[in-house]
Amino acid sequence: MNDMLLEFEEYLKNDKHSSSNTLTSYLRDVRQFGLYLERCGTSLTDADTETISEYIQELQQNGKSVSTVTRLIASLRCFYGYLLIHNYIDSNPVKTVTVPKSQKKLPQILTGKEVDLLLSQPKCVDFKGYRDKAMLELLYATGIRVTELISLNITDVNTSVGFIKCSHRDKERIIPLYPAAIKAISDYVSTARENMIADPDETALFVNLNGTRMTRQGFWKIIKHYQKTAGINKDITPHTLRHSFATHLLENGADLHSIQEMLGHVDISSTQVYVQLVKQNLRDVYNKYHPRA
Q: Of 126, 178, 212, 255, whose CB has the highest number of CB atoms within 10 Å?
């Protein structure tokens, strides 16, 4: 990544004649995106539109302003334009990424019935079925990010007590598990995982069919597959289950600070979006069912 950034810096100076401020911000944005990709197990040249869109979504959920995200998109569009010109890539993955509007859209969630339908899709008839069932149950049980899900090690799960240990940006949190999630994980570990891992010393909790740690892209494909088999028309991403987890807890009486702690939000304002979502859901129910609405 360092060599590529040095070449990009020369391109900005000599070909684009960029100002020092533009130079600094573009390089910082690309470097931060590169670090994000390293955590995901992806390189700068392998990143696709979905990866970039998911990164932008994560920044927005973490409270980054519209102007910051807009600048980031401009930085990445310029960087990938440079890579395309110099034949490092075949197409610019940022070309179709849109600049976010100033008004934040409330996140989309699944209803309880839709969650049940999605979680019932993986069938425990083979190793992959056991793994997929455990991953989906764990994601909805804890509301963790997809990066955190694939970063889990076998030692981070305690099924006898019923919790997972999750780390994000050097901060650790403990999140409880409901019984169905505990069973799904226990079944996967005892039945499938030892037959799937390529190396007996593999530490990853969830592995792909090659026996190595699951990737973000791999899990993205899994959740899209089960969305299709479930016949759910909503656009489901790993973050959809995170949003659903938080909203359903709030709807059932959980306090905002507990949800903030489980989600790993640094700022309570990031969690307060779910209050707006619950209010919107109540308004929708009122408008649909009140006889004079």
A: 212
Nearest to 104 by CA among 245, 280, 260, 255: 280
Residue 274 to residue 293: CA distance in whole angstroms: 24
Local confidence pLDDT in tens for the 293 residues of the chain: 688 889 999 999 998 888 888 889 999 999 999 999 988 888 899 899 989 988 988 888 888 888 888 899 999 999 999 999 999 999 999 988 876 665 556 778 899 999 999 999 999 999 999 999 999 999 999 999 998 999 999 999 999 999 999 987 778 899 999 999 999 999 999 999 999 999 999 999 999 999 999 998 999 999 999 999 999 999 898 889 999 999 999 888 888 889 998 998 888 877 888 887 777 776 776 577 656 55
* Cβ within 8 Å of residue 90, ≥6 positions away: 84
What single letter denotes the amino acid at residue 139?
L
Which residue has 């999605």 as its token pair? Answer: 118
Please, what CATH class does the domain formed by 112-288 belong to? mainly alpha
How far is residue 138's CA from residue 131's CA, in Å, rounded to a whole number? 11
CA 132 to chain centre: 16
Indicate where the chain has its CATH 1.10.443.10 domain(s).
112-288
Return d(Cα 238, Cα 240) in angstroms, integer. Answer: 5
CATH number 1.10.150.130 is the correct assignment for the domain at 2-85 = yes
Rounded-to-integer distance, Cα 105 and Cα 277, Å: 10
